[in-house]
UniProtKB/TrEMBL annotation:
Segments passing through the bilayer: none
Domain of life: Bacteria
InterPro entries: Scramblase (IPR005552), Tubby-like_C (IPR025659)
One of the Pfam families matching this protein, by short name: Scramblase
Annotated GO MF terms: phospholipid scramblase activity
Protein name per the record: Oxidoreductase
Amino acid sequence: MLEKSHYLVKEHVGVLKFSGTYDIIDPETQAPIGVAQERLGFLTHALRLVIDKRILPTTVAIAEQEDGPAVLTIQRGFTLLRSRIDILDRSGQAIGYFKSKLFSLGGGFHVYDTRDQLVAEVKGDWKGWNFKFIDANGSEVGTVTKKWAGLGKELFTSADTYMISIGQEFKGKAGLLLAAGLAIDIVFKEG
């Protein structure tokens, strides 16, 4: 799953949902290649009734099939101003982390490896729908683009669809950038 350079991510539509589930699809074949699911404890579910979910901790497991073992895990603890989101591989070892920007017009965050080296920056446009992965040298190495789902779905649901594209020269960090693309919606945008 992590060897791809293009991913289509579709959020499941749900009424009164307390956790998110996203299908990860190969855009060339339209075949499902994975799923991302928020895995929350009872207390976090209960607190989401009264507290904004962007403040509460969350864990997102990215697996090749629903309820399967995680290939990647996105974890965020309690947060107020700036979030730190840790990314773990299938063995539970850290592969990097994201640090949200304090001020950003279109949204965005920094992507770091395990040695605290800046790997990329995620920059959003003024609408907060399209994002670019910019490497430490200032070159674009990937994009996240929101796909229009139609008037009915856009007006009456918060379910989004994104295309994540990763440049060939950055495929060694595909897991980190796939997690970054998912974190845009799951961790930073959903309210």
